Amino acid sequence: xxxxxxxxxxxxxxxxxxxxxxxxxxxxxxxxxxxxxxxxxxxxxxxxxxxxxxxxxxxxxxxxxxxxxxxxxxxxxxxxxxxxxxxxxxxxxxxxxxxxxxxxxxxxxxxxxxxxxxxxxxxxxxxxxxxxxxxxxxxxxxxxx
Length: 145
What we know:
Protein name: GNAT family N-acetyltransferase
CATH topology: Aminopeptidase
CATH superfamily: Gcn5-related N-acetyltransferase (GNAT)
Distance between the termini: 26 Å
Number of helices: 4
Organism: Psychrobacter aestuarii
Structural class: alpha+beta
Helix content: 25-40%
CATH architecture: 3-Layer(aba) Sandwich
Keywords: Acyltransferase, Transferase
Oligomer: single chain
Shape: globular
């Protein structure tokens, strides 16, 4: 599985993968919540992280990871591509090449928490609200030594 850099030219497709993934895994978010996050992703989140992605043979993005200062800021896989090892490959790549040690997950996203725990992370703290002050608790996880 090839992991390649993603750039500004990929932002629209990354946003589509993000939305597809979020709609499938974040049932606690409303459509209004999702729509409100889109401009922030395009204008602030994507430009502030090192983006890597996995593409299929036709060049379509199946999943991506965004890292900043040894922390995973985003990891999303297209719903139709889940269970194929894409998230695991992106995470291992980030662990090996970017020395990531931290990740935050929504407490309600049980699949994400279980995934990271299987990969060696453990909860170190909890915030009752997300970064935008919304009532979506965040679990802060750290890679076990």
